[in-house]
Amino acid sequence: MSVHDVANAKKRKQRATGFSEQRTGRAFLAPTVIILLALTILPFLLTIILSFSRVTFEGGGIQLHFAGLANWSRLFADERLWNAFSNTLILVVFGVSVQFLIGLGLALLVNGKIKGQGFFKVLFLLPMLLAPISVGYMGRMMFDYGRSPINDFLNRVGLEPIGWLISGDVALLTILLTDTWQWTPVMFLILLVGLQAIPKEYVEAASIDGATGWQLFRHITLPLLASAVLVAILFRTVEAFKVVDIIVIMTGGGPGLGTESMTLFAYIAGLRIFDIAYGAAISLTLFIPVLLGIGVFLAVARRYRASTSG
Amino acid sequence: MAKVVLHEVTKKFGDVTAVDRLDLKVEDEEFIVLVGPSGCGKTTTLRMVAGLEEVTQGEIYIGERPVIDIPPKDRDIAMVFQNYALYPHMSVYDNIAFGLRMRKVPNREIDKRVRQVAELLGIADKLKRKPKALSGGECQRVAVGRAIARHPEVFLFDEPLSSLDAKLRVVMRAELQALHQELKTTTIYVTHDQAEAMTLGNRVAVMRDGVMQQYDNPQTVYNNPVTMFVAGFMGSPAMNFFPVRLTGEEGRLYVVNSGFKLKVPQDKTGKLEGYLGREVVFGLRPENLKTPEMAHDHNPEATLEARVRARAPLGDELLIHAETGGVELVARLTPQTEVAIGQRIALVAEMEFMHIFDKDTEEAVC
User: Fold this and answer.
1) Is the pLDDT of residue A14 over 70?
2) What's this model's pTM, rounded to 2 decimal places?
3) What is the mean pLDDT of residues A35-64?
4) Surface-to-core class of residue A80, CB atoms within 10 Å of its CB (0-12 exposed, 13-18 middle, 19+ buried)
5) Helical H segments across chain B, by residue range
6) Smallest Cα–Cα separation from B90: which of A296, A108, A309, A5?
7) Which CATH class is domain B240-358?
8) pLDDT band at A296 (very low <50, low <70, confident <90, very high)
9) A88 CB neighbour count, 10 Å cutoff
10) How crowded is residue B76: how many other Cβ atoms within 10 Å of its Cβ?
């Protein structure tokens, strides 16, 4: 056998094992792919079809009739959509920003030389561990107009009680506060893990190089934390777009439609009023801005990372 | 430039004393090496000088200034870390410039200094690269460049060559030496590699368990180790130690064990009189054991017999591991020496290079 033959035989063998490895790999992936198709992709396609249909229930069954753009043209003329959309957007933009800033602040504090780190970690993570329903009930009790500790406190210090859940100007802010209380821990957790993964030599080298406080954070910590920031914001943004549970419990979308989110609107239209096709169209309108938003965010993040890392 | 003085410096981590009342004086423009095995406190000492570790007790002076309450950035030091700690998100240029920018040096001056340093270290064509795209040796140069661009009073090196391969290590060692010749910046260099310590240091401080054992120029540390630990640590292969009894006959002294009886040279007997009849440790370096042909000497009072157990031909020399009187020894012989495993050979001990250590205190007697 010449050297050439040996090399060829080697290649053949690699190709052969590579092939069988690929097949085994696919076999292992198959169940997941099938379940995903059945539970995610198919319903998603069905939703798209639904949004272009008129639904009738005759003889106990469900019939779809092609309705063209009827649902869509009705939807875009519906003021309730724009109300729900702007409420959701406010909750996403302000909620995620505030949660990010507080989460980052807490993570930086806990990551520093602080005594009782373990205690603070658990304390800060607690809200995340509660079911949103419980958080909703807590929010409802804390922010009740007549009997809540918060208004009682305001009363005692001589301030007017606030209609946290019943005033149209404030209710959305109250939802934002409660959402922030529950979900800041997620930011905190992801950012803390990110901070702890930064080798301390970088910070030490920079502190010898003369960087202090803000400079250290701006030039060393933040760029090295970029991946964690990306994950945290993405994760929370996607979740925040879908906000519904605490709203249902705390205000039911009210007062009026003051706190109705997109998901709640879709739920009410589709499953309360039982206009399934309309509900499908609403939920798709939520999907498109989320996708767009994430796309833009990822593109910006990628550019930032390309400019800061090699 | 500045001198560095550590006065009775102690560092405790909880109950563990990492550094114990260390006194160290580094003269202006001097290059000293802290050497010792892992956990001896050498890196902790360096980090205390840098200000990265608090001092439990004692005082550190850089120049005339006590510095233990001064933050790292104001100590006018630069440090090269074991894993380089190059900022991964910055280019080579920005890595070197970072310290200058933080100190608000004007941009034109920064540019000039970065290019100067890059030229000096041979990395001028790499300035735009990120650390990820550099080889180990290049990373090393950037780390050094970052330190020297700031023109600090003192350089601190924490095992900077330990992650390079053996060949590159030798090259970088020579470069660091040349760099010090040129810049003359006071340098404290930490390593666990005794060969690095010997070649680089004007003086070498050998540490063990947080305590300084000996601080002197490399040749003195090698030739006159003050403790068994220093004797065993400096030099490779390590010094041979034999438990022996010191006996006297007709005014002559001998070191005796079950395998040999060797005469102590006359000039050494003075210091040993107090140990007559006692058990001591006799030390001799591998290069001071020779075949009679090599030594041109057949003096039976300086010859021992040993049985060869293993041989390691290294090309330019032949190391043999042999056994005499139940003790293992290593001898460094010329590569031409013909010995087989299992063979008994005669070895001449160059007794003028012998060491005697107190068995209990492990301190050198002579």
Assistant:
1) no
2) 0.82
3) 88
4) middle
5) 42-50, 92-102, 107-121, 136-148, 166-183, 194-200, 218-223, 228-233, 269-272, 292-295
6) A309
7) mainly beta
8) confident
9) 25
10) 17
Contact (Cβ atoms closer than 8 angstroms) between residue A270 and residue A278: yes
Tell whether the model's pLDDT for residue B298 goes beyond 50. yes
β-sheet with B203-208: strand ranges across:
B77-80, B154-158, B186-191, B31-35, B203-208, B211-216
B151 CB within 8 Å of a chain A CB: no
- Cβ of B98 within 8 Å of Cβ of A309? The answer is no
The identity of residue B228, as a single letter, is M
Which of B83, B98, B130 is facing A209, going by the closest CB pair?
A: B98
Query: Which of A205, A226, A310 lies at the smallest CB-CB distance from B85?
Result: A205
Amino acid letter for position A33: V
By the CB < 8 Å criterion, does B132 face chain A?
yes
Per-residue pLDDT at A12: 59
Task: Pick B4-233's CATH classification: 3.40.50.2300, 3.40.50.300, 3.40.50.10860, 3.30.505.50.
Answer: 3.40.50.300
Alpha carbon distance A48, A280 (integer Å): 7
- Chain B's closest residue to A306, CA to CA, is B89
pLDDT tier for residue A11 given thresholds of 50, 70 and 90? low
Split at pLDDT 50, 70, 90, the class of A16 is: low
Please report, rounded to a whole number, the percentage of residues in chain B having pLDDT higher than 70: 100
Q: Is the pLDDT of residue B361 over 90?
A: yes
Number of CB pairs, chain A paired with chain B, less than 8 A apart: 72
Q: Where are the domains of chain A?
A: 3-39, 78-274
Tally Cβ neighbours within 10 Å of residue B54: 10
What the block records as the tokens of A291 is 């996708």
Residue B235's CB: how many other CB atoms inside 10 A? 18
> What was the pLDDT predicted at B246?
94
Chain-chain contact of B103 with A210 (C-beta, under 8 angstroms): yes
Least CA distance to A308: which residue of chain B? B89
Look over chain B and give the mean of its residue pLDDT values, rounded to a whole number: 93
Domain made up of A78-274: CATH architecture: Orthogonal Bundle (1.10)
Give domain limits for chain B.
4-233, 240-358
Is there a contact between B203 and B32 (Cβ–Cβ < 8 Å)? yes
Answer whether B236's CB lies under 8 Å from B192's CB: no
Select from B136, B21, B117 the least CA-distant residue to B78: B117
Looking up tokens 């869509």 gives: A72
Q: Write the single-letter amino acid at B142.
A: V
